[in-house]
Amino acid sequence: MDKSAVRTLILYWKAQGLSQEEIGERVAGMDLNGYREDACEYVHEAFASDLFPEIVVTNRPMRDVSHHALEVLYGCNGDTDGIYRRAGTLVRIVQDDEGRPIIEPLSESAFRGRLERKCAFFVTGKGGKPAPIPPPMDVVRDCMSLGEWQFPALMGITETPVLRADGTVFATPGYDTKTRLYYPPGSLTVDTVPDEPSDLDIGAAINLLHEPICDFPFDCPASKANALAAMMTPVVRPMIDSPVPLTIIDKPQAGTGASLMAEVISIIATGRSAAMMTAQNDDDSWRKAIVSLLWRGQQVAVIDNIEHTLWAPSLASVLTANTFQDRVLGRTEMIQLPNRVTWIGTGNNIKLAGDLPRRTVWVRLDAKQARPWLRDAKEFRHPNLIEWVTQHRAELIRATLIIARAWVVAGKPQADESPALGGYESWCRVIGGILHFIEVPGFLANLEELYAQADTETPQWEAFLEAWHSNLGDEPTTVSSLISYLTDNADFSSCLPDAIGDRAEKGFSRKLGKALAKRESVRFPNGLVLVKGIEPHKKVATWAVRGFDGSETPNPAGFERNAGFAGFDSTQAHVREMDLFSPRVGGEINPADPANPAESDADFIIEFPDEEEGG
């Protein structure tokens, strides 16, 4: 019997429940061909270490073997080679080719390999002798298919020490149960952050925090404050229980430093230059890109050199979601992924569409030069900024933590008039409070300018509705009649919003009808609102433009409510309130309705879009 067989036999005996003394006695009675000392060491190792527990498969139900295997893995699950649960599946943390820690789903092969390195599986062979086997695949699949495990839940990866939600600092490499973040060990060493920073600590931290952005040509204090906000966000992210907005770093022309600023933010957060992505061409591509980076646990996402109008439903959705739900790529099941990404976009005079302006923070750079990339390096305090930030990364992180910790100790003070950004209340409260604490002015003060600069649709619709109201007054009109007015009036036609297109285009009627429906009851800044009604004879949609005083529900001329709609704001509201499936026989649904529905025009209307009317 060779050494390997002796070791296997010892492990088998242990798995059968024999004590160390009993196994030692058996070994003493064996003919071991001169390696008795090795055999005694094997016995000692078997009982001195739990790194290689034994699992007997023979004559045991699969559920028992799976339970035993999982118990072994739970007991020896380490930080550096740990298994975690995330989005309803098992995952692990590995390094990509660039050395970045990323999260990846645990495959059957990887799980089986983990079992092989943590357990010893045996079957009973001929004559009752133990025979080692690889982890059985049915056990592997059973363990992975449970859906509920005792492995720690993984929120994401952080490559810097961070401030927890309770205001304490998480700075020890490994897994943190409070934040559910994994902080990989590496070359970064950040000095201890004092629990109660002194005034001297705070002053030094404030001065250092301004250094990485001191050479950028901000157009106003708000842009500088917003840049500091983006730089601080990854370090205090666990304190923020809301999503974080997209930070657009914008400039009038190339060479001003937008991509450089994105690099600085990424280096501080991760220690590496940002993994740049381009704006996707369609929403399906956006969705796939978002799911991919969320799966990996990416901390900073940079959409670089945005050239066209930025808009995608999936991007708008993820910017307002703590958890992003989508279909697993290439499969039918849905997954929910935590969203901890700090989103950044760069470009020249970026245009935003849809809901994105309300989900964006603006940083505007303007060197006020024809060729900003030719600026003399002597003008800069840090001519090689990337090198400087890389060298001082640990100090910059510590400075951020000192300031944030001091804000917590001070009671988390807020400005008297705290800026607000709907959907990002927690981010505004934390970041806005910290910036107020260190007396940085202008946080979010350029939102109105952003909306005016980004929103090209509203001014066009205002002009169109003003021309409409000037030509037609409050009178309701159908889409086909409106097209006739546009055809006969070149000035009126010239006011059509770009999104609607030219009236000579094929399908213009339907396109116009859909555009009007999308803006039904929208109050525009010029005091006009578009109201929908129903033409009583043809039962087609009509539209009217009227003014509003900001308080009443619009009711344009020609849109008289009949008695059957008393108490409702519109026919649409009435339909929602009515029980569409109750028979109207011998009584009234609404006391104002007559008993015979045939005599009333107050009954509900099911409206089908008309090809010609487009409404």
Quick structural summary:
This protein is α/β, with parallel strands linked by helices. The protein has helices at 3-15, 20-28, 36-48, 62-75, 108-118, 137-145, 199-210, 221-236, 258-270, 283-296, 313-318, 385-391, 393-409, 425-437, 447-454, 457-472, 479-488, 490-493, 508-518, 571-577, and strands spanning 54-56, 84-86, 89-95, 101-105, 120-124, 130-133, 156-157, 162-163, 169-170, 174-176, 181-183, 246-251, 276-277, 300-306, 323-327, 334-338, 342-348, 360-364, 528-534, 541-547.
SSE blueprint and pairings:
Layout lengths: L2 H13 L4 H9 L7 H13 L5 E3 L5 H14 L8 E3 L2 E7 L5 E5 L2 H11 L1 E5 L5 E4 L3 H9 L10 E2 L4 E2 L5 E2 L3 E3 L4 E3 L15 H12 L10 H16 L9 E6 L6 H13 L5 E2 L5 H14 L3 E7 L6 H6 L4 E5 L6 E5 L3 E7 L11 E5 L20 H7 L1 H17 L15 H13 L9 H8 L2 H16 L6 H10 L1 H4 L14 H11 L9 E7 L6 E7 L23 H7 L38
Structure characterization notes:
- The protein is α/β, with parallel strands linked by helices and 615 residues long.
- It has three domains: 3-145, no CATH class; 199-454, Rossmann fold (3-Layer(aba) Sandwich); 460-599, no CATH class.
- Helices cover 36% and strands 15% of the residues.
- It contains 20 helices and 20 strands.
- It has helices at 3-15, 20-28, 36-48, 62-75, 108-118, 137-145, 199-210, 221-236, 258-270, 283-296, 313-318, 385-391, 393-409, 425-437, 447-454, 457-472, 479-488, 490-493, 508-518, 571-577, and strands at residues 54-56, 84-86, 89-95, 101-105, 120-124, 130-133, 156-157, 162-163, 169-170, 174-176, 181-183, 246-251, 276-277, 300-306, 323-327, 334-338, 342-348, 360-364, 528-534, 541-547.
- The strands form seven sheets. It has a five-stranded parallel β-sheet, with helices on one face. Strands 1-5-6 form a three-stranded mixed β-sheet. A three-stranded antiparallel β-sheet has the order 2-3-4, with no helix packed on it.
- β5 and β6 (130-133) form a beta hairpin.
- α2 packs antiparallel against α3, α5 (108-118) crosses α6 and α8 (221-236) crosses α14 (425-437).
- The longest helix is centred in the middle third of the chain and has 17 residues, at 393-409.
- The model is unreliable at 550-615 (pLDDT under 50).
